[in-house]
Amino acid sequence: MEIFVDAINHCGLREVDYVGPRFTWIYQRKDGEQIRERLDRAFATQEWMDLFPTTKLHHLSSLASDHSPLSLHLEYQQKKMKVRRMFKFEYMRLKDRRCEEIVKTEWEEEEIIATDRVLERCLERCRAELSAWNKSEFGHVGRKISELQSRFEGLERQPSSTEQIRELKNTRVELNCWLDKEDVMWRQRSRLNWFQRGDRNTSFFHAKASARQKKNLIVGLMDANDVWQEDDARMEEIVVEYYNNLFSSSNPEDFSELLAAVQLKVSLAMNEELTRVFTGMEVRLALK
Q1: Is the dihedral of CA 84, 90, 94, 97 positive or negative?
Q2: Do 124 and 97 form a contact (C-beta atoms < 8 A)?
Q3: What is the pLDDT of residues 188-198, one digit of tens each?
Q4: Which residue stretches of 34-96 are H helix?
Q5: Where are the alpha helices (DSSP H) in the chain?
Q6: What is the pLDDT of residues 65-96, one digit of tens each?
């Protein structure tokens, strides 16, 4: 098994997420007991997963075999939900000196005009200005890098001249700056805090961020009757029903089983000492 795992890691394979029953193999013993295992799985490379990001492996039911049939669904029509994007500060912005200038300017101006809730108003003003600046300057890092790479390749094909050499140098510096920003961006989105610095490995961090985003995507939920539901309205009902049941009381009256599990901290001797009648001497000592 260890060699098999090493082979999977060496090939860079990832397991495809599944939908349906957990186990794919059932063995019925003569004594009536069952052995259940998940023996059947599907693996794919990261490049393949990028081509089919919503792939699901469906575990189907079988009436003839002790193995469950597997059905690989490559395409899934993901529902687009209109969700307001939350403001998240990108660490890569700190690599641009204008970021500090924007924060300082907006903070100082709001401090002058604000009369109440100064901190809240300063933060809101910085958020709005940084969002606008991010949209205009960092709207699409990948597109900016592609444009600089194309410009750099075009300059390399031109005849050598003083102007061409200077432009080539400036483009190389700008391209490296944007590559560093892209690397920082994907490191932050991948949330791998254990790897802070080192060689640029953008594809690795992009894969980790994509995997986390895919993990956070809820395609469907199993209802109380073990039926797979993918409709948004039904999923909402399942979530509401689950937490209603979780945080609702069944109004129990018999607590003996619960109390029996609580370990005693006060012994019988200690309890007798605490509940006995006070003596006159003890009262006089307490009042002195």
Answers
A1: negative
A2: no
A3: 655 544 444 44
A4: 46-51
A5: 2-11, 46-51, 97-113, 118-137, 141-157, 162-190, 202-216, 232-246, 256-260, 268-275, 280-287
A6: 888 888 888 865 555 555 556 666 666 666 67
